Amino acid sequence: MLPYFTGIEVEAKLDYPRLIDALEAAFRSGGEPMPVRQSYDVGTADTPGHLLTMPAWDRGRTLGVKMVSVFPRNAERGIGAVSSLYVLFDGQTGQPTALVDGEALTNRRTAAASALASRHLSREDSRTLLVVGTGNVASHLPEAHRAVRPIEKVLVFGRSLARATALVAKLTEKGFAAEVVGDLPAALVRADIVSCATTSQTPLIFARDLRPGTHVDLVGAFTPQMRECDDATVAGARVFVDTYAGTLAEAGDLLQPIAAGTWSAERICGDLHELVSGACQGRIDAADITLFKSVGAAVEDLTAAALLAGEPDAGVGPHEEIRGALSFTA
């Protein structure tokens, strides 16, 4: 019988220092191009539904695929709209070796990827983190960032005071000095790192509110119609991405400034592979405003699942991905 790693086990076994190091090794190694995610309409006239598949492999070692179903009307049934499962296979025999809770895996590796970028882009003395959003991903970001920077203070901004308060209570239990903030521009002035995980379609972060030296981590906005920052933030920052193909296909934070003519893709300073391999320079000085835009990469899922199942050296190059299994709430 295949081992199945529940969400609780994923949380317990994939500690951030080890996962971040594994992702760094995977991105450093590079790898062959992988297929972009596949999306299929599997619903009916009365019940819309989509099936998404995201494959990745490291030839001769391991391979895997994340499957995500999205049924928006599940709320009427009292169940979640998104379900996700990751299947890991042996790279020599093709035999399945493990099943993993897809949502927990995605949340964990997403936060770890942000922390990996922060390791190279935020100031080493960064102590105050502003989290914009109160969903599942947002709740993971402080622990991940604390694995690479001496985070002491966490500010939480969200549309729902109740959800923001609940997240602060959760973070306080984990040893953070956390507080709810209601004035986002004022909170931005206090932050060393700003990490956004929302589904916003209008800017939340404006360049006029950012102080020199801030690192901006944009995790949400995973479609061309969505965005979390204004054009001026992108234009004034040193911009890095997880993968070129993914962000230039899906990241509204970059695509909208490109369409407006206020910025161009040629100004991207590097992707995660170039950043961690030393092919491009990260932060240059303490006054830099750096920006990391992620839309997700299947290499992260495969690396995390292989690490979970006992294949710590497994790693592949950048791949395209979707945020279908994530929960974002501003």
TrEMBL record:
Q: Which GO terms describe its biological process?
A: carboxylic acid metabolic process
Please list the GO terms describing molecular function.
Answer: oxidoreductase activity
Q: Which SUPFAM superfamilies did the record assign?
A: NAD(P)-binding Rossmann-fold domains (SSF51735)
An example Pfam family from this entry, by short name, is OCD_Mu_crystall
Under InterPro entries, the record lists: NAD(P)-bd_dom_sf, ODC_Mu_crystall, ODC_N
GO cellular component terms? cytoplasm
Which NCBIfam families does this entry report, sorted A to Z? PRK06141.1
Family to which the UniProt record says this protein belongs: Belongs to the ornithine cyclodeaminase/mu-crystallin family.
- Its recorded name reads Ornithine cyclodeaminase family protein
Q: Which organism is it from?
A: Ancylobacter pratisalsi
